Amino acid sequence: MTQMDVARLNSFLEEAFPQVAPDFTVRAVTEDGVEVVLLPREAHLRPGGTVSGPTLFALADVAVYLAILARIGPVALAVTTNASIDFLRKPEAATDLVAQARLLKLGKRLAVGDVLIVPEQGGPPLARASLTYSIPPKTA
């Protein structure tokens, strides 16, 4: 069951994380996750005309976080407890990136998600990540 739609997730990012909100845009809330788009700019690049690894990791991390919030509502204190990422191909600097995140498990205290990062215009995956989040207990 979805608690937050595209507009609410984007608004939450702007309010709770104004430092990163301009970089990420939720494009879709799916049955089991979200799609988040990153439009790379100069700050995301490394020498050689490619999007940096930390930028790809941030995209994957934000995508799973938003997939969780789409289901449980605006819980700002959900935090990453484990992450693994495989960098598969070099993302070109002029390529918009799409993170396709899906939740594999959503429990009361832990959530596990997978992310596939692909170029906007299509093509093979650029990175794959798996993340686990800790969800804080509900307060009365």
TrEMBL record:
Gene3D superfamilies: Hotdog Thioesterase (3.10.129.10). Pfam families: 4HBT. Keywords: Hydrolase. The keyword Secreted does not apply. It comes from the Bacteria. GO terms for molecular function: acyl-CoA hydrolase activity. Residues 48-123 form the Thioesterase domain. NCBIfam families: unchar_dom_1. This is Uncharacterized domain 1-containing protein. It comes from Phaeovulum vinaykumarii. The lineage of its organism: Bacteria, Pseudomonadati, Pseudomonadota, Alphaproteobacteria, Rhodobacterales.
